[in-house]
Amino acid sequence: MRRRLEGAWRWVRATPSAILLIVQLLGIVLYAFMDDTGDSVARLLLSLFGMLVVVLALAVVRASPTYTWLGVVIGIPAVLLTIIDWATASAAPWHLASDVVHVAFYTYTLIGLLRYMFADDEVGGDEIWAIGATFTVAVWLWAYAYSAVQGIYPGSFTAAVDPEGARSWLELLFLSTTTMSSTGLSDVVPIQPVARSAVMIQQIAGMMYLAVAVSRVVGLTLRSRFAQARGRMEP
Questions:
Q1: Alpha-carbon distance 176 to 167, whole Å?
Q2: Exposure pattern of 95-133 as b/e (b: 16+ CB <10 Å)?
Q3: 172 Rama sector, left if φ>0, alpha if ψ -120 to 50, beta otherwise
Q4: Which has the closest alpha carbon to 162: 199, 132, 187, 184?
Q5: What is the 3-state composition of the chain as percent helix, strand, coil, each rounded to the nearest 5?
Q6: pLDDT (tens digit, 9 = 90+) per residue, 145-179?
């Protein structure tokens, strides 16, 4: 049992991107059960889960001390505003402030993950996980951006269910996921100019990310295979 625990811990330390990706995917499942409930305990659990993701994101981004301190400077207000947002029942000023700070923090994390992914000339195990983690971090970033847009411009988004109401976090996360993946399956629709501009920018960014990430993995994999084949051919 001890060896298994030690092996699991080594895997966690070696592949932090995998942990971040798994936790965010689990979060999507949790949101499905908690998003529409009025239970304050459920909202607190969602807030705590968001804080966990923030901590994991800080652990994943491996950078210089200056860059790490920048993450802490942004991350601590994000955690504090998450708690305040819950305590004030998502009062408009605090909710908007929380969204803006989360956008800044996930932007920092996204840049860090991209630097981490493209730093090596070889594709390792954690770099593969980082491709998925970077995608989900971008999804979260844009979901918070949509929430901020909705806070500044009420009525920016509509949907088949309660067209005039404010869109929930799960709805905005769903919109972000379908936009980022270019599936276009969301029933949440931007109807104001700023919201439509934000969605269009995410569509372009999502297509560019998928194209660059896939081409990089394929290119490095082929280069590695060619190098191995050349080594076997040489006397």
A1: 12
A2: bbbbbbbbbbbbbbbbebbbebbeeeeebeebbebbbbb
A3: alpha
A4: 187
A5: 80, 0, 20
A6: 999 999 999 999 999 888 888 998 889 999 999 99
Q: Cα dihedral sign for 55, 59, 65, 71? A: negative
Q: Whole-model pTM?
A: 0.87
Range ranked top by mean pLDDT from 21-25, 30-34, 199-203: 199-203
Q: Which residues, in sequence order, are CB contacts of 134 under 8 Å at separation 6+?
A: 110, 113, 114, 117, 209, 213
Token pair recorded at residue 156: 């920016």
Q: Of 153, 194, 147, whose CA–CA distance to 175 is shortest?
A: 147
CB-CB contact of 116 with 132 (8 Å): no
Cβ(153)–Cβ(192) below 8 Å: yes
CB atoms within 10 A of CB 156: 23
- Length of the chain equals 235
160: amino acid identity, one letter: A
